[in-house]
């Protein structure tokens, strides 16, 4: 039991379900399928981004440029699709978006891996450069006439229910993308040497090099993969919104990072799990979307999220302090 | 010395940017009017960056600076637009303004102390602690204002942001005062020397008898006070207080600090370097503005600027290593 | 058997203008235990890194098993069977024992995927090789130091090592653990595995090695069979001069004078228990004992880092309460930590700043302002007093050698007018030349009336410097040695026969 309580994920799980029960007790409508579907939908994009951020954080770095990459990929993909392949399919859109993201991610990679600079500072530079470039040279107008394939995808679903009031509620097919990314990231981190290399790098970079890991290759993977996921998430965002607004997405980077940290990833690197990250995402989404349901005005949102960040990080900081006392 | 070299290099960059902008905007950039308007504009980011530098010198970061600034502004707004009677006499207004300024500074101080407590005593990494407090502060500000701006500040107050003393705009003088005080505090006081040492090696600081927790508390309190001063200048210039004003300043301030030679890992950086960096960026954005470039082009250039400087430093260091 | 496994030929390597290795060659035969000796900064570590492929030599070649390499990558070295156990063990603190043991083998097999079953099997096999038992699921960051080293050794052996290089493997080990390590090395030899043992502890060099190569200032000065050497000879080759070592006779005043430090019934739960001793003017007091004997904790308690729970401390006859480092400093107690790099110095800051940090409060003027040039001149006079070899006190302290760095820490505390200086491992990582200078300086300071307390497991150092030695074990003082009792054999006998 004591061991379990030392596990951050376990504690967050308990708290999460307590909060769920509490919200449900205040307003049973919380448990309606419609509400649960809408929570799940809100988790998709944040979840995909958070899983990329998880890998960056485990490796001992922080990237804040992923939202700029995501917005850039979204907007540019829409432009390219409309100009070159107005009849193009969904897969093509995701491929273009993913590729753009990957290329932009490789810029981060070349600074972090090639010049051994801290990713936080590098990504500060790339995020202004990427966003500035898009808004200055590609465009600022919202694109409303997205290709038909994207609009069609926005309507597709994998589950459909008619709720008590007769309203039809659906779970978008895009949830499959989150599931797929989850499985891929989980597999990479748990079952590939690349993934173990990410953990090793976050634990002790010098030992990682001595053990014979190719650190540059690992870092190229990390930032290119982060870019790729950002691109995918960007295109998905335009699908959900049914438009491409270049001003979207940027500004959410800190809440995504907060979700990952809430899920137990250590900001100093070496620790973090896929399960914890999804839990963290679920938690922040839950808070953002459920305050109204329990009668708290939505402008309390930020306060509650801030409190959660402070309390959860304080708890893990204090727990580490006591654990150290026990060892020595 | 390495520090002097990088300051010289920065100064050179600032001068080059200045000359290029003057050449690209003949008869417009090199005018008293433009220089004056730049002197009104840069202090907001300048003061915020000074605060960010303090946090970064200790090896931390403060993501809550702008939230603190806005919180301070909004409390001032409540005092000066809601509490103060509409028909208040002049001397009464002066009293209220003084009271509002005091509350603003106190807000900064207390918020900074909370950050310091979470970081030094509880042991939360600075980036997370201040991320949390920034959300809480912005959240409370939204709760208080329901997200609306608080406009309508009294004339006397607005003078802080929009008038001159002799030929110097007051925001500029405020920045100058902050910079001078910080210069002495960092270079010539025991607090400053200890702050640099903590940023260099926190364990060695403990073993050499530095009261690390107390210095960290003080440093975040100082950052908080600087944030509230920035808040005062922002509010007085724009005649309004808003919960999410200037949120892009946070990352810009980190950018300015890094450009100015502050080491993100802590222990190194100077007021002079930072001041030159913030001026170069102001030249850049004013010049671009005159060329009718969008703000976004400026944002793009800032980012490229940072990457470029990091690249130059990297290759310079590499050359020094191999040439010796 | 006379086959050469590794030949390093004419290696040159420079860093930022410093010629770290100058035309160095080294041969290691199959199954040989070879010792690489040299002072700190002699190029030992660089040479190891070159052999491991971590540093690329500027010129020269490496021949492993008759294969020539101009540029060896870490992974090539591993494939050739070269394993390095670095001083810091190169483990991953955030991973389990099992994964730490298996990760390198998996990498070496160029695996892309991880089989956790195989990880567990590999780990079990690895521990069997040296016959120890550890909890495979524990995170390495939670292990004690000796266990971490066991993990590092068994990991190295696991990968079909043909040559194991051990960088200062005994620094963190107790005498008993060192013996176990030597047994393991001998058993490796029986299997035909060569060992390159890197050390600056002369006794061990003579005990374990067959051949010896000595480096000085990046150059090889001599190599030969170990029988040809004795301690004085090795010291001579390492330092280039003869270093005399003479015992320290205390000029302790008897009877009426109050001790500088008097400790009675001092206890700290779980660390040390009922400690009693006095330290008089003119004495150098040594404390030794195995790792975990409570010696470091006792020092940290006196310095207020982790205050004691019970007992009394008197300074010059006055009872004092130490609840924090500031309390200790106010009462004139200073502490020089063992880990100079992480706890002692601000490596990137100036030499001057590293010295005057101790006296900021006493030179503070109005508004907390410091007259920096005054502070610099105080530092400069201490630099002169202590013979610190620094042309420019404003250069970062990391540009100094280990011995000079240690003197900077000492200078810091001397500037505070401390009454008692506790030094933990005062010459760890300091080369022999400076070591003698530092120890002589300590004796001199003791004669001038400063209380000196040395915590160390370097027995010759203790014998050379201390006038009285306390031996700690399991948190208690079990022996006090004085005068003629202070003798190397006697102390190692006590330490070897602890339960």
Automatic annotation (TrEMBL), chain A:
<feature type="transmembrane region" description="Helical">
    <location>
        <begin position="12"/>
        <end position="37"/>
    </location>
</feature>
<feature type="transmembrane region" description="Helical">
    <location>
        <begin position="274"/>
        <end position="293"/>
    </location>
</feature>
<dbReference type="Pfam" id="PF02653">
    <property type="entry name" value="BPD_transp_2"/>
</dbReference>
<dbReference type="GO" id="GO:0005886">
    <property type="term" value="C:plasma membrane"/>
</dbReference>
<dbReference type="InterPro" id="IPR001851">
    <property type="entry name" value="ABC_transp_permease"/>
</dbReference>
<feature type="transmembrane region" description="Helical">
    <location>
        <begin position="246"/>
        <end position="267"/>
    </location>
</feature>
<keyword id="KW-0813">Transport</keyword>
<protein>
    <submittedName>
        <fullName>Putative ABC transporter permease protein</fullName>
    </submittedName>
</protein>
<keyword id="KW-0997">Cell inner membrane</keyword>
<keyword id="KW-1133">Transmembrane helix</keyword>
<feature type="transmembrane region" description="Helical">
    <location>
        <begin position="168"/>
        <end position="189"/>
    </location>
</feature>
<feature type="transmembrane region" description="Helical">
    <location>
        <begin position="80"/>
        <end position="105"/>
    </location>
</feature>
<feature type="transmembrane region" description="Helical">
    <location>
        <begin position="299"/>
        <end position="318"/>
    </location>
</feature>
<keyword id="KW-0472">Membrane</keyword>
<feature type="transmembrane region" description="Helical">
    <location>
        <begin position="49"/>
        <end position="74"/>
    </location>
</feature>
<keyword id="KW-1003">Cell membrane</keyword>
<dbReference type="GO" id="GO:0022857">
    <property type="term" value="F:transmembrane transporter activity"/>
</dbReference>
<feature type="transmembrane region" description="Helical">
    <location>
        <begin position="220"/>
        <end position="240"/>
    </location>
</feature>
<keyword id="KW-0812">Transmembrane</keyword>
Automatic annotation (TrEMBL), chain C:
<dbReference type="InterPro" id="IPR003593">
    <property type="entry name" value="AAA+_ATPase"/>
</dbReference>
<keyword id="KW-1278">Translocase</keyword>
<dbReference type="InterPro" id="IPR003439">
    <property type="entry name" value="ABC_transporter-like_ATP-bd"/>
</dbReference>
<keyword id="KW-0813">Transport</keyword>
<dbReference type="InterPro" id="IPR027417">
    <property type="entry name" value="P-loop_NTPase"/>
</dbReference>
<keyword id="KW-0547">Nucleotide-binding</keyword>
<dbReference type="GO" id="GO:0005886">
    <property type="term" value="C:plasma membrane"/>
</dbReference>
<keyword id="KW-0067">ATP-binding</keyword>
<dbReference type="Pfam" id="PF00005">
    <property type="entry name" value="ABC_tran"/>
</dbReference>
<protein>
    <submittedName>
        <fullName>Putative ribose/galactose/methyl galactoside import ATP-binding protein</fullName>
        <ecNumber>3.6.3.17</ecNumber>
    </submittedName>
</protein>
<feature type="domain" description="ABC transporter">
    <location>
        <begin position="255"/>
        <end position="499"/>
    </location>
</feature>
<dbReference type="InterPro" id="IPR050107">
    <property type="entry name" value="ABC_carbohydrate_import_ATPase"/>
</dbReference>
<dbReference type="GO" id="GO:0005524">
    <property type="term" value="F:ATP binding"/>
</dbReference>
<keyword id="KW-0762">Sugar transport</keyword>
<keyword id="KW-1003">Cell membrane</keyword>
<dbReference type="InterPro" id="IPR017871">
    <property type="entry name" value="ABC_transporter-like_CS"/>
</dbReference>
<keyword id="KW-0378">Hydrolase</keyword>
<keyword id="KW-0472">Membrane</keyword>
<keyword id="KW-0677">Repeat</keyword>
<feature type="domain" description="ABC transporter">
    <location>
        <begin position="6"/>
        <end position="242"/>
    </location>
</feature>
<dbReference type="GO" id="GO:0016887">
    <property type="term" value="F:ATP hydrolysis activity"/>
</dbReference>
